[in-house]
Amino acid sequence: MGKASSRACTLLFRLLALAATATATIVMATSHEKTTFFNIQIEAKFQHTPAFKFFAIANAIGALYSLIILFVPPVTSYSRLVLASDMVITMLLTAAVAAAGAVGQVGKKGNEHAGWLPICGQIPKFCDQVMGSLVCGFIAVLVYLVLLFHTIHTHTS
Amino acid sequence: MGKASSRACTLLFRLLALAATATATIVMATSHEKTTFFNIQIEAKFQHTPAFKFFAIANAIGALYSLIILFVPPVTSYSRLVLASDMVITMLLTAAVAAAGAVGQVGKKGNEHAGWLPICGQIPKFCDQVMGSLVCGFIAVLVYLVLLFHTIHTHTS
């Protein structure tokens, strides 16, 4: 692959990472549902669950980083720093998807041993939106993984 | 830093990663508590929670990888492959700590909005053991992060 096409490819993947992280943040941040259950009004918000808050914040950081990195010139002297910071962001996004996914799994399936009931039956819209957000977050992780492999392939000896 | 001392340092960190992942696996796999609550016998096992199972399996894979990598000769032609595989293992361990940590947080604090009660009051020994295991897993992630930064520092242009 030539240098120009390699750069175009990197730029495309960075834009994709920006889109995925920004979408994940927005979809999670707007997830909200009100419902009535046995005459009790339930309001589901992502802020009620620490793991979902962490997911939203991590993806917002990821989106900001993906935006800033677009303006970093592709000079070789930066590549080491970019590889290290890409790696840290990938780890942050991975942790966010894993944490939110684990709590989402409890919401969907419950945990009978702990006495935690599944709640997605009561708030299906909220659950679907959280799931959509998780899919975007997972895509962002995959895109960053491709970027990391590409950097390792081109810049390491 | 000379080449020999750099290699000794890497070996030390790899041994530390092996110890941390193996300890995390064993401590999680042996976590178990029986208790009686309102005349109902409760048995807490890590197998009852998918996130804890994932944590144990991920750390077992991490320990096996950390062991195998000790026998890979430090030849430059392998460094690219080692960097890539180190990165994937670090992401796996990060996901494991995040997923198990998120569910552990629900166990400790509960989630009143979802109607999930904290359960650590009933099974303190189990909770402490899971917490210890999470600390070991977190140490393993930090050790791998140092190893990754070291490899990036020494092998990238």
TrEMBL record, chains A, B:
Its main location: membrane. It is found in: Cell membrane. Residues 1-24 form the signal peptide. It is a multi-pass membrane protein. PANTHER family: CASP-LIKE PROTEIN 1U1 (PTHR36488). Homodimer and heterodimers. This is CASP-like protein.
